[in-house]
Every structure is written in C-alpha cells, then in structure tokens.
C-alpha cells in the first residue's frame, strides 16, 4: 500500500496505510505523541495538500487530534506541558472572566491565557498600570480555571513585589488552578508592555525573581509552567532583553517571552537563543509595537505559543458600545449582532443543568425556598396540621401573602372606583415548570399590584390592573393570564 501521509520532524517519519483520502493520525499513549520527534518545524508531504494554508490547517489538526487522545482529568500543568511538546505553534486567546474562558474552550482552543490588562479593565474599569492586586488576580483566576477544563496560563505581572512576594504569588496561582504563570521584570507600579514609561529592575533582581518562582514550584510539589517575560527591549535594548532571556533559561524558566519586539528580524533573533526552551509571541491586536504575523509565519520563526491579548475584551467593548447606541435610539441590537436567548442559555449551561436536574427529580415537589421579599409586604408559609396535610395533595403547597396596611395608596377606601371592589378578591399566581412540577402557588390581595414583578419577573410589562378592571364585577373565579415564559414555564394568574 502507498503511504497516505508522511509526517517528518528531525529524523522522524510516520507513515500510514492509504484507506481513504483523509488524514487520520492518532498518537498512541503513553508517552504523549511518542510517534513524533518535534523540532521547530513540522514538514508534511501529502498529495491532498497543495497549498500552505491547507498544510497549516492540517498541522493544527494533527496537534488537536493528539490532544483529544488524552483525558481532561490530567493536572492542568501536565496538560500544558503536553501541548508544549506537540508540533506546530499553539494559539491562546486571552480571557478575562469565567464566561470568556468558557467561550475560548467552546471555540476549540487547547489552552488560554488570562490577561491582566483585560481583567483590570473588566473587573475595575481601570487601566493596566498597577491598580489591580495579587488577591484580585488570584480570585479572578480561580473563577476562570474552575469554569473550563483546558489549561490556563495566568498573568502574574511582576510577582507583586520582591523575590519573596514572587514565591507567594506562584504558590497562590498554583492553588487557584493555573497551569502556567507569566512573570515579568518591570518595576512597581508596572504597566502594559506596549505603553510608554516602562522601567525594569536590575539584571540580578530579574533573574532572582525567576529563580524564586522555580523554588516555589519545587516547594509546592507542583509542575506549573513558568513563563519568564522581560520588558527590557523597550526599556533598555534588544541585546539586554536577549541576555536576560538566556539567564532566565539558565535558572529554570520553561518558556521565554520578550514583549514588544519591534520587527520580524528581532523576533527571529529571539527565537535563536536557548533553542531548547519554547518561545512565546504576543500578537497585540489593534496597533502594538510587534508585527502581527499569522501562525505559520510565527512557527517558521521558531515560536511555540502565541497570545492574542485584546481580541476578546476589545470585541466586547465595541459590541457593548453598539448595543447601547441602539438602545438609546429606541431600538434593540439587531439579531445578527448578538446570540439568541436560546443560544445564550446553551452557552451558559442551562440545558445541561436541566438534564442533570432530572436525575434528582422526586415525585413530591417541595417548595423549600419560596420566600419573596418586598419593601411593602412579606410572604409567610403557614404551618399546617396533620389533618390539613391529609386533606391536601402533597404536590399542591400554598404560600399565603400577608400585606401591610398600604391600601389607601390604591384607592381602596373609595367605593366610587370599580378597582376598589378588587380588595375583597384574591389574586392567585401559579407557575408550573416545563418538567411538570409546580414551582410556585402564591395568593395576594388582588388590589396589591405594586411589587408583583418581584414575585414573577415575567409579569413585567403586563397591565394587570386593566385585566382586574374588566373582571371587577364578575362573580366567581376567572383565569386572567395563561402563557409560557421564555424559560418554558407555564404562568397562570387567577382572580378568585
């Protein structure tokens, strides 16, 4: 049989039999992807792939296929180190909260970064100039890592102090669930790498920070990936940044990163030092100092990881601005500019929740938390004796509403107003979930409408008073409303 594909690295070739005109390469564990010897360049010879774009896509597909062969249950740092061993360059968008991280994972990326720039913007509404603290970054990071199963590289800024602070930072990021941490050599307060006025600490202090990080990793029994970053290219010179990266590699850094390199030639020079240590690129979108290159170009230079720090926060800002302009103009954002409500629910996991909830459903639906608070009334569930419990179905709990003396605000003492007749009647609000179980059964005085949306938000915008006016003189009960809300629950409003 003729080989369908030949994948070659440095002295390595893998051939597979030709069954169909598709590429299906899987890596037999353990060890991960042991059939490949990875260099800085992966060569693919395949008749089906006739152009660089197809080759690039196939290269990424091979890496992702190998990635899927391994369980997501592995420790985050181990998963990240496995990615570093895969062929090709690996793209990592920068998230800033749990939702953005989940979107990165849903898009199929193998890992992501957390961006201090974006977290400072989203959490504080402030620039990345040293305002955000270690504690805030750890807290935000924990929310991010718990929301996804892919490894996350955390932005550790300058370690928030001297070498001892760096050790505390590394240990805190390990506990927060990060797979890697980026540590830089800026002074305090630090600043975004592509902004003006940046300064770096001395060579000795910069190296000691990375050594402290390596020691903290050993002391924690962790394998967190340490990404050593220097900002000395813009603060001092290219030669200084290259010297610092060599020193970082000598003391145990796992990945090297020079921020704000100014040309493709500088990027190439960086990738030529410490050839056994992976390099990280930062593609600052929208006008940074570093040239924006595509993944194939970055791989040609010798990069292994590439970050996209502003895409998510930048697109979010513009989308919110456009939506606010539409709302202020009396419109809503056009359908194509935002996902549907059903899509939002799917992204956030509502459907998964509903499916899992069914596993714990019981035949008796107990309302354990039907407490409604308002500035004008409170709800009390009356205790029922054994006789009442035997006479009433266990699936029909009733919540009675006790209201304060506020009737005069609604004309309750004026017999000339037809609406005043309503105070002798009761308004019953009943909600039945889409699973058939009763969610709520509330009775309130029919004339007390203020705050009713605190009980059932879906009634917002419904003119209950008009419905009551029409039914004021009718004798007996009447069904005023019967509809399904956007969650699929059935809402019924009765006048009794």
Describe this structure in words.
This protein is α/β, with parallel strands linked by helices and 496 residues long. The chain folds into 3 domains: 3-65, no CATH class; 75-318, Phosphoenolpyruvate-binding domains (TIM Barrel), CATH 3.20.20.60; 362-495, no CATH class. It is 35% helix and 17% strand. The protein is built from 17 helices and 17 strands. The protein has helices at residues 52-68, 76-85, 98-106, 116-124, 134-147, 163-176, 203-220, 232-235, 238-250, 264-272, 295-301, 311-328, 341-348, 350-357, 386-391, 452-455, 464-471; strands at 3-8, 13-17, 43-45, 90-95, 112-114, 152-155, 180-183, 225-230, 255-258, 280-282, 305-308, 378-380, 399-402, 426-432, 438-445, 478-484, 490-495. An 8-stranded parallel β-sheet has the order 9-8-7-6-5-4-11-10. It is elongated. The N and C termini lie far apart (82 Å).
CATH architecture heading of the largest domain: Alpha-Beta Barrel
Total strand segments: 17
Could you tell me the mean pLDDT?
A: 79
Provide a count of the helices.
17
Spatial sequence of strands, sheet with the most strands: 9-8-7-6-5-4-11-10
How many whole angstroms does the radius of gyration measure?
A: 31 Å
- State the CATH topology of the largest domain: TIM Barrel
Largest sheet entry = 8 strands, parallel
The CATH homologous superfamily of the largest domain? Phosphoenolpyruvate-binding domains
Oligomeric state as shown: single chain
> Which CATH first-tier class of the largest domain would you pick?
Alpha Beta
Poorly predicted tracts of residues: 1-72, 365-387, 392-416
Indicate the overall shape: elongated
- The N- to C-terminal Cα distance equals 82 Å
Q: Which structural category fits the helices and strands?
A: alpha/beta
**Relative strand content:** 15-25%
Q: What's the domain count?
A: 3
The percent of residues in helical segments reads 25-40%
């Amino acid at each position: 049989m003729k080989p369908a594909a030949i994948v070659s690295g440095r002295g390595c070739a893998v051939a597979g039999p030709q069954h169909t005109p598709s590429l299906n390469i899987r890596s037999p564990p353990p060890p991960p992807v042991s059939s490949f010897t990875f260099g800085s360049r992966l060569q693919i010879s395949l008749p089906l792939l006739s152009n660089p774009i197809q080759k690039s896509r196939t290269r990424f597909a091979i890496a992702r296929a190998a990635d899927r062969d391994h369980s997501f249950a592995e420790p985050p740092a181990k998963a990240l180190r496995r990615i570093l061993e895969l062929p090709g360059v690996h793209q990592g968008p920068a998230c800033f909260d749990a939702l953005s991280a989940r979107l990165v994972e849903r898009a199929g990326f193998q890992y992501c970064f957390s961006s201090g720039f974006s977290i400072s913007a989203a959490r504080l509404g402030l620039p990345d100039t040293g305002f955000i603290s270690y504690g805030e970054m750890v807290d935000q990071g924990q929310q991010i890592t718990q929301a996804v199963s892919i490894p996350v590289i955390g932005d550790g800024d300058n370690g928030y102090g001297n070498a001892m602070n760096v050790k505390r930072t590394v240990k805190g990021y390990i506990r927060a669930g990060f797979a890697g941490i980026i540590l830089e050599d800026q002074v305090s307060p630090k600043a975004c790498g592509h902004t003006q006025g940046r300064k770096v600490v001395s060579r000795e202090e910069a190296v000691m920070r990375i050594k402290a990080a390596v020691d903290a990793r050993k002391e924690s029994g962790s394998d967190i990936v340490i990404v050593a970053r220097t900002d000395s290219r813009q603060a001092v010179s290219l030669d200084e940044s290259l010297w610092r990266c060599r020193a970082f590699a000598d003391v145990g850094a796992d990945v090297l990163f020079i921020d704000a390199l100014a040309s493709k030639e500088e990027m190439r020079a960086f990738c030529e030092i410490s050839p056994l240590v992976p390099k990280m690129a930062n593609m600052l979108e929208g006008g940074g100092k570093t040239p924006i290159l595509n993944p194939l170009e970055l791989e040609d230079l010798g990069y292994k990881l590439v970050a996209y720090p502003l895409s998510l926060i930048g697109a979010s800002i513009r989308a919110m601005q456009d939506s606010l302009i539409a709302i202020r103009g009396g419109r809503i954002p056009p359908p194509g500019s935002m996902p549907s409500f059903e899509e939002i629910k799917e992204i956030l996991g509502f459907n998964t929740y509903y499916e899992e909830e069914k596993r714990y459903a019981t035949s008796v639906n107990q309302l354990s938390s039907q407490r409604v608070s308002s500035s004008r009334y409170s709800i009390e569930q009356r205790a029922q004796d054994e006789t009442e419990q035997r006479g009433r179905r266990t699936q029909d709990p009733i919540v009675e509403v006790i209201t304060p003396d506020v009737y005069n605000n609604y004309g309750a003492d004026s017999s000339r107003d037809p609406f005043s007749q309503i105070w002798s009647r009761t308004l019953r609000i009943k909600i039945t979930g889409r699973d058939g179980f009763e969610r709520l059964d509330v009775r309130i005085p029919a004339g007390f409408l203020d705050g009713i949306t605190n009980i059932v938000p879906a009634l917002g915008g419904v003119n209950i008073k008009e419905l009551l006016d029409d039914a004021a003189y009718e004798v007996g009960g009447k069904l005023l409303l019967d509809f399904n809300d956007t969650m699929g629950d059935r809402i019924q409003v009765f006048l009794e």
